[in-house]
Amino acid sequence: MESRRLSFDEIAAARAETERYYGDKRHPLGVMLWNVRSAYNVGSIFRTCDAARVEMLLLSGYTPSPDHGKVHKTSLGAERSVPWVHVADPLDAIAQQRQRGHRIIAVELARDARNYATLASSDFPATFVFGNELVGIGEEILQACDDAVIIPMFGRKHSLNVAVSVGVVLYRALDALGVLTAGESALRRTSR
Fold this sequence. Notes:
This protein is an alpha/beta fold. It has helices spanning 8-22, 39-52, 69-75, 90-99, 139-144, 162-176, 186-190, and strands spanning 27-34, 54-60, 84-87, 103-107, 114-115, 126-130, 147-150.
């Protein structure tokens, strides 16, 4: 295999092809953040939500919004391409997503949580709930969720960074939806 970095023109062509293919269409995925304290984590999550083409990013509690300079700096403008809303009360955010037909799935170290790898097409549309970097998801919020998934840990630490966890779960969700195996990405098609 002969690899080389894609040129700016190849990347721009792939972006244009992706926009033509999707238009306003988004994957049936939502992400809710509760009391995520790091603006850098939030900015990174915006970029991941853009990459996964989620329907909605809900910021709740004291999670900073894109008007915070560090969120804007880290998101590299993804706050303009990801539909987002700040809903102070996380239970209201959950209710809004449930009204849209979404299952609410906590990503948490919780009793009876199933392995995230078991996500299947029947789980969607779904909104994944991620919590505070130190304490996770509040108990009342966890009880309001329909299901919980866990990312297995094999090291000495018991969790991943929240922004990393969002990426792991969203790309598993895309795989479960068949998006990743539906065909070659626009990047690969335009780089030939």
